[in-house]
Amino acid sequence: MMKANGPIILTVLLMTLNIGCAGPAPPPHSTGYLNMNWKEVATGMPSDWYRSEEARMTGDSVLKYQTDIGGWAKNSDFHNGGVKQNDWKRIVEYGIGATFDNDATLTEMKFLTKIYTETADERYRDAFLRAYNYILMAQYPNGGWPQFYPCQKITDSYSSHITFNDDAMVNIMRFLGSLMNEENPYASMQINPAMKELAGEAFYKGVECILNTQIVVDGKPTVWCAQHDEFTLEPAKARSYELPSYSGQESAGITLLLMDIENPSKEVIAAIEGAVQWFEDHRISGLRVERYINEEGEKDKVVVEDTTAPDLWARFYDLETGKPYFCDRDGIKKKKLDEIGIERRRGYRWYTSEPDKVIQSYPEWARRWGAQADNESYE
């Protein structure tokens, strides 16, 4: 990877959206791919499928629903109808340009790479490059990315926050890192040296944002919130039950991203070591989350004691006490999962095992880079 040479300066004219309200009808000779989810179809089909008539019809839908600014809406089944009506309504009424939420935009770019590789249809490469430019446009001067760009025109919206939630920013940065990799999976898109350099600059601006948003307590770096204010960089609220906190889940993805950097600076090393120590200090042992059918016949979740269960981490930890908390849509913190209502209890991932990946990867990483703490910074 390369070092950033300076800020990316991009001047854009934000055009109005030019998308239809309904996608093409499913092909009359539909196969099992219509029963698959979009991500599976976009990235997981056999190579020869991307030369098929079904793939071309899907490609037409992807092109149809690309916004003028270059990205896509989320939760869209481009192989089976296009943008859902609720998401289309949000686009029209709230002025949402596109999003990185739920793997949107990046999934479409992966699909375009596969279909272009098999068909050499320049329309797909052109759409990919527009989306690549969209990613660069959406980056803040401080290096972060919002959930939506342009952001939703809604009062008190969290779409403008720097978004680590569900690995949105991490996924963008991994894409940019791939463009600089000698085994670049997007090589068929003919990414030229100038574009690779822009990817490098954007990537390392993102690294600086990660370092600057890491929560520091008593002079020691810890982890991150799922989203941070785009101006102050402080932990920020998203939905009513997603309060400012230490994030046990999103922080794992951030740390793993940092651990993949070759020749890390002393700042990156310190950030990783601080996060690893935080994960060690906040592991939860002897508990297991179990799904069951309750007396009303509804699906539910319960936390049970189990000394053989692997370690868990909470999704959220209180910024003042450092203790796990759980929250209903009323925004009131609770100490136990069974203290919140069934709707949020079963409808949200309150525990995670993701930090275990960090713990397991750390010894090898430390062997390679732990002694490199005297490296120069990116600046």
In words, what does this structure look like?
It contains 11 helices and 12 strands. With 379 residues, the chain is mainly α. The protein has 2 domains: 1-213, Glycosyltransferase, CATH 1.50.10; 214-379, Glycosyltransferase (Alpha/alpha barrel). The strands form 6 sheets. A two-stranded antiparallel sheet has the order 1-4. α1 packs parallel to α4, α4 packs antiparallel against α5 and α8 packs parallel to α11.
Name the features:
disordered C terminus; single chain; globular; 2 domains; disordered N terminus; Glycosyltransferase; mainly alpha; two-stranded antiparallel sheet
In short:
The chain is built from eleven helices and twelve strands. The chain is mainly α.
Query: How many H/I helices?
Result: 11
Q: What structural category characterises the helix and strand content?
A: mainly alpha
Count the E strands: 12
Helix content: 25-40%
User: Roughly how many Å apart are the termini?
Assistant: 15 Å
Kindly estimate the percentage of residues that lie in beta strands according to DSSP: 5-15%
Largest sheet strand order: 1-4
Regarding CATH, which class of the largest domain?
Mainly Alpha
Oligomer: single chain
Number of structural units classed as domains? 2
The CATH topology of the largest domain is given as Glycosyltransferase
The secondary-structure element order is HHHHHEHHEEEEHHEEEEEEHEH
Mean pLDDT over all positions: 87
Give unreliable regions as ranges: 1-30, 373-379
CATH architecture of the largest domain: Alpha/alpha barrel
What's the Cα radius of gyration?
A: 22 Å
Largest sheet: 2 strands, antiparallel
